[in-house]
Amino acid sequence: MSEDCVSALQASLGAAVLSGDAIPERHYSDATGHAPCRPLAVIRPISTEQVSTAMRLCHAHRCPVIPQGGMTGLAGGAVPTSNSIALSLERLTGATEVDTAAGTLTAWAGMTLEATQHAAESAGLRYPVDLGARGSCQIGGNIATNAGGHAVVRHGMTRDQVLGLEVVLADGRVLNLMNSMIKNNAGYDLKQHFIGSEGTLGVITRAVLRLAPALGDTHTVLCAAVDYAGVVKLLRRLRGSGLSLEAFEVMWQDFYAMSCNWSAMAPPLDAGLPLYVLCELEGDESRLQGILELSMAEREISDAVVAGSKAQARQLWKIREATAEFPSRLAPINFDISLPIGIIGEFAAAICESLNERWPGCRSAFFGHIGDSNLHLTVDANSLPVNDAAAHHAIESLVYGLVGKRGGSISAEHGIGLLKREFLRHSVTDESLTVMRAIKHALDPRGILNPGKIFTSEPIAMSALA
Amino acid sequence: MSEDCVSALQASLGAAVLSGDAIPERHYSDATGHAPCRPLAVIRPISTEQVSTAMRLCHAHRCPVIPQGGMTGLAGGAVPTSNSIALSLERLTGATEVDTAAGTLTAWAGMTLEATQHAAESAGLRYPVDLGARGSCQIGGNIATNAGGHAVVRHGMTRDQVLGLEVVLADGRVLNLMNSMIKNNAGYDLKQHFIGSEGTLGVITRAVLRLAPALGDTHTVLCAAVDYAGVVKLLRRLRGSGLSLEAFEVMWQDFYAMSCNWSAMAPPLDAGLPLYVLCELEGDESRLQGILELSMAEREISDAVVAGSKAQARQLWKIREATAEFPSRLAPINFDISLPIGIIGEFAAAICESLNERWPGCRSAFFGHIGDSNLHLTVDANSLPVNDAAAHHAIESLVYGLVGKRGGSISAEHGIGLLKREFLRHSVTDESLTVMRAIKHALDPRGILNPGKIFTSEPIAMSALA
């Protein structure tokens, strides 16, 4: 059946279809390194029409389709199975249009985030989503996973930038939702369904994105907070300061010490203090100085350093970016969770205690986009008595169990994909899961779009579960 | 059948159900004044459980349910039919919680917008959605219609403030989506489905809303633009200025003259100029002065006045708020449309020309939240040779037809409800309508929730329309 589908695809799409040994390995797995798997074929369409043809044929043959972008995902969302067909959007990269009056940019799904940023800059504007994988990740994938990144505290997630979409549905129908207005309440806002749905409801082919003005003068400052309450107070002061807060990154003591140690950098602020906050702000420096002085006088922070040059700012950011070295220096078990901002400090302490109780000497590092309620936590599996799959699973169960108990999310910005499916119930009620499956059933009744991602259960109508 | 339903509701919910003559007239129609109609009964639940019970019973009896909030809608979305049951959320007003660390507020659906604003202010924060009906409109209705208002240019629409929701589904199931984090990618973001769905997919009972910092020093300025290109350039300058643009309202010549005339106000800037822009900005006044000088030197604006006091600012806003007098001074046919910002000027001219070609002497006024791509247009039916339903319909057809041709939306912020159903196809493709009906079918297969609103067609599964 699936072999017939490949033949039909080749007959219709010719060179856009690669099969067998001709499939490049990059289509086998994503940045998680999840067990690589060669799909039956990979389709690399160069137009919306080709995507539509591909979906129509796969739908007719009931053949599973795995949409793929830059393969930089961290949840296994784009990993194929051996009986599926990968649909790579990498060649869907036509002309980009910038409308400077409306402040919008129209991009094809296969365009990299970096190219999108450059297109905006060339027009004197800015696409404000930014993340480490900018050079490889693609706009379609960013939208399908509702990517976050560094500047969410000011600009929101990818969802907040999307004004319009073009989507190919499971059966090949093309949905034109290419709205370019800020306000549009003409019926259901259908684009919202596809943003963050990880390729399970439709294939995103084009988007209208909102642009921000170019960034003015920014200041980078590193503060040492006396405790987590101090972090929260500083956040509130900066938010209400009239300055624009572009980033509010927090590093716990161990993370900071480890990072400075790795880079052999003299710590710009003493190591051994409880918490470090790295902020990026746009606006008047005198106002920033005033806030730092006040925050110090109120004993919320004990020290602060404002970067005096771009080079110094880069040095400060380098401390936070030590995460890039995790894979080479640790055996990292990474978490991407979110919790109400006020309880993150206490939660981090509780997790630390639970980990050490069960695995004495367990090494962990806490850091994150705290201004967005997003905590990252990395456990070094090398510090466990036994580093095996069972230990990984036990640690995940412990962390996600505690996240669920406190009303947090097991996925702040990376999605669920394959890797977090089993833990989804910690953040999602049974009723919500029922509705998700019903939506999936409504849009993809044959379940051919990225099956097995997000949830293990089959799509089914709600009435059947009443 | 429906009478049985009322009896069942009375048996379960007692005093929360009013029927026959006991139903207050406010439940008969909304702010449009659409033909009032007494529903079979009105249910006024005081808890989510009561809403759930009400929906379960109505679902069992297949009885239509019309959710109602403050009845301030402008599209007929809350108008009942004689065989339906109105479900008013007006008594669902429990305690409000503000989390100052997270910057969130938890509100019940029946809380007025004004009470929500006050609760935020009491905590030193701000709920940034604002609109004329603030004293009567309710949070549940605001969310169900994705309300816009004055500050969208900075803070976005109601959708952008909603972090979490509690929703009662058509069959009475309660969906707990009370997320309070900025980032949460754990499965589909189900709350998005209900925002702006005008009560056709579920009944909103509670919400977690995002708060903004309290507003700092603001400046109100009225500018005269030399042409529409000047308006667009001014908008771009202000957006990129480092000042925070809270409002960017444009008034065309006729609107401005009419308003100053009605209030017997000496025009703060000469009447007879092409366009007037009323802005509200937060930030340094010197920076604002610099931009105004530059904009004048570049001949984008010809004159400007900055309010020197709160009283002067109120005077300037009064010019824009002349719309409140439309019902008493005109026979207004109102439009709430959106278009890409760059083409609004040319569109307004084209509409004006078309109207005058067909109805010589036709009086119209153009104004709107141009910073959000939202144009309001009012035609005075008194200026038509014949002011009857056919003329209204002809004018609507003309305007919406042109909106559709230019890729605009027939509803920027008021929704579709009853009044715009027939014109929905101008802004929504057949495929989109199919998907909307499929979503409706998935969540409300019996079609009991606000039937006949948004679209006339029945909910139906997509596969049935393949």
Summarize the structure.
Two copies of one chain form a homodimer. Chain A is an alpha+beta fold. The first copy, chain A, has five domains: 2-88, Uridine Diphospho-n-acetylenolpyruvylglucosamine Reductase, domain 2; 97-213, Uridine Diphospho-n-acetylenolpyruvylglucosamine Reductase, domain 3 (2-Layer Sandwich); 218-323, Alpha-Beta Plaits (2-Layer Sandwich); 330-425, Alpha-Beta Plaits; 429-465, no CATH class.
Report on the architecture of this protein.
The structure is a homodimer of 466-residue chains. Helices cover 32% and strands 21% of the residues of chain A. Chain A is an alpha+beta fold and 466 residues long. Chain A folds into 5 domains: 2-88, 2-Layer Sandwich (Uridine Diphospho-n-acetylenolpyruvylglucosamine Reductase, domain 2), CATH 3.30.43; 97-213, Uridine Diphospho-n-acetylenolpyruvylglucosamine Reductase, domain 3, CATH 3.30.465.10; 218-323, Alpha-Beta Plaits; 330-425, Alpha-Beta Plaits (2-Layer Sandwich); 429-465, no CATH class. In chain A, helix 1 (2-13) packs antiparallel against helix 2 (48-60), helix 8 runs antiparallel to helix 10 (285-297) and helix 13 (344-358) packs antiparallel against helix 14. The longest helix of chain A is centred in the C-terminal third of the chain and has 17 residues, at 389-405. Chain A is globular and about 70 Å long. Chain A starts with a helix and ends in a 23-residue tail after the last helix. In chain A, 55% of the residues are buried. The interface between A and B is large, with 95 and 95 residues. Chains A, B: Its cofactor is FAD. Chains A, B: Residues 35-214 form the FAD-binding PCMH-type domain. Chains A, B: Belongs to the FAD-binding oxidoreductase/transferase type 4 family. Chains A, B: Keywords: FAD, Flavoprotein, Oxidoreductase.
